[in-house]
Amino acid sequence: MDYQGSTVRDFLHANGQVVLERVDNNHNLRSFTQKEIEDITGGYSTMLGEGGFGKVYKGKLDDLHPVAVKRYKNGTKKEEFAKEVIVHSQINHKNVVRLFGCCTEENALTIVMEFVCNGNLYNILHCSSSNANGCMPFPLDKRLDIAIESAEALSCMHSMYSPVLHGDIKPANILLDENFRPKISDFGIARLLAADKTQHTRHVIGCIGYMDPLLSQSGILLPKSDVYSFGVVLLEIITRKKAVEGNNNLAKSFLEAVRKGKKVRQMFDEEIVNDKKNMKFLEDIAKLAAECLKLEEKMRPEMLEVADRLRTIRKAYHLRKGRHSTGSNSRLTKSEKAEDVVPVVSIDELRKITRNFGSCARIGENIYGEIFLGVLKDGHNKSTIMKLFPSAILEVLVACLAFLHHSS
Fold this sequence. Notes:
The chain is α+β, with helices and mostly antiparallel strands. It is 37% helix and 16% strand.
């Protein structure tokens, strides 16, 4: 996509990808005016951060829902803005920052996204938060949870009909919500990969220490480029060392140790290596990271396999610790009847367990309604809750009555 016009609308029209149509044709996205953006951000009063594209501000929607507003520099970055909206609008996953909409007015190019309240993985790993006591405790099971859910989101992106390649996977772009669940963010250099085609880029953009060496050499972005970057993230998770610090490159140091047959356990974070029972699981994660970092692209695993192997490691870890794996249905026995385990839940309870149907609990949607994840009041059973669209209520009610009649 090349810029060929003096205005955003000219640019979008010339390139055949009209962001406004993307917004208008998607009932989940909203087209904001410049005035609305100014009201949402309180006149751009609270800045969260900035980069080469512009600045990010905190704001609130009409319903007081907190949001992050990414404002592009006036009159610049039109191509990047269009690409980011187009790519981000394709993704709907519980571990990806939700896109609410955008403003395409000439001097107010902005993207409105879900606000994620607990900073990012980089801050937690490298003690960059405002915690006066230094690094916060970070147990292995929580690290595994974050790695698994991040891998699942990337796997989903790579598996789409037109795969989404993130291109900038690093701990700073893995945000954490109030429950420390990961949310992949920043699709500024992400790309849509057309079926059976290769994504070439004229300008190799990425972060030193995380960028696939093959990408920097060839300018070709592939799904395995994200796999390489995720391998570096796995190393940071188990070592709590930065990808690049001074002249030291974490991935190079790790691969050199592997090549020379040295024990990489000396690199593991002391907090989690002090428990000797963790050593086998840390070595399994390190082995997976080494495969992700292979220079031969075809030798690297797909993100689907990465997520699956991490889940296997977590299951073994929980069994070793005498705990049930996440998502286990071991509490439910075959002898129990459906009516014994299906509770009747009031609307007030539903609001409570879904945090008032908030975006942090939202995991997707289908043609009938939005889907949320909640924990019932027993504190153990995770449940999915569908909030029906008004147009689907009658159809779903008829289907439920037919099912009950058939069951009886």
